[in-house]
């Protein structure tokens, strides 16, 4: 695997590869890699000639400075995992490489309703920060395929919309990859490392809530009742729910109840201690 730290070196190398007719699959990450990230690498390896992964903890998408400061960094382990997965290129830029004029001066993108609900409501400015960094990375890498995880369902919709706004929807094929889970159903996440043993032991409840919402969605139980059961279950274990919600999967318009004729997604965000976790499940 070749590691590039600057845009100019990366661009030169990728230009050469493109001229040779090779397709590029791109996986943007913030590092502290786990099997969920590696599944995106595997997808790219199977569909493209050259797999490019980036690791960049983007300050612009953290509305909580403490969350940014505590974000895990495990670069040497990440490199070993990427090499084991036969990733071809790692892009490891500094903050000034991505934002030479400061992140506040980078081009802003807006996503309407999508930036104001669920994660957008809980983390004001988060998706604008995601938009900034992904736009810059897409301009640098110019991939043919972009791989992202369905675990961050709202982020997938935001980045698809970003590609549309940048006029790249035809050029870049967006691939949403399935969520990789631990044995108890907990979605793999870099943040799981911050859970202590007792917190980790109860974290599988998020998945249990999603499974229960999915099964009740076909049983005529009103969503409000299912959501209350989930909230009560979480609170009983000292897990603080931020939202347990239902939305139309394509638009993320919130839904009050289950609809047979709509593709729906259940979304959940909680805090266990000071660790914030999110997950989701498509219902039909
Ligand atoms: P992050 O490093 O958290 O920014 O994640 C980088 C990419 O990996 C994003 O597209 C995530 O959605 C994806 N990802 C994170 N966790 C998982 C998982 N458990 N399964 C599949 N993809 C994931």
What's the pLDDT, averaged over the residues? 97
Which shape, going by the Cα principal axes? globular
Low-pLDDT stretches are none
Measured between the Cα atoms of the first and last residue, the distance is: 40 Å
Major sheet, described briefly?
6 strands, parallel
Structure description:
39% of the residues lie in helices and 19% in strands. With 284 residues, the protein is of the alpha/beta class. It has a six-stranded parallel beta sheet with strand order 1-4-3-2-5-6, with helices on both faces. The radius of gyration is 19 Å and the shape is globular. The protein starts with a strand and ends with a strand. The site of adenosine monophosphate has 17 residues, from helix 2 and strand 5.
What descriptors fit this protein?
single chain; 284 residues; alpha/beta; six-stranded parallel β-sheet; three-stranded antiparallel β-sheet; 11 helices; 19% strand; binds adenosine monophosphate
In short:
The protein has 284 residues and is an alpha/beta fold. 39% of the residues lie in helices and 19% in strands.
Q: What does the secondary structure layout of this molecule look like, with pairings?
A:
Layout: E1 2-4, H1 7-19, E2 24-29, H2 35-47, E3 50-55, H3 65-69, H4 75-84, E4 89-91, H5 95-98, H6 119-122, H7 126-141, E5 145-149, H8 153-165, E6 173-177, H9 197-202, H10 205-216, H11 223-236, E7 240-248, E8 264-272, E9 275-282
Parallel strand pairs: 1-4, 2-3, 2-5, 3-4, 5-6
Antiparallel strand pairs: 7-8, 8-9
Helix pairs in contact: 7-8, 10-11
Adenosine monophosphate is lined by residues 29-30, 36-37, 39-40, 148-149, 151-152, 177, 179-180, 187-190.
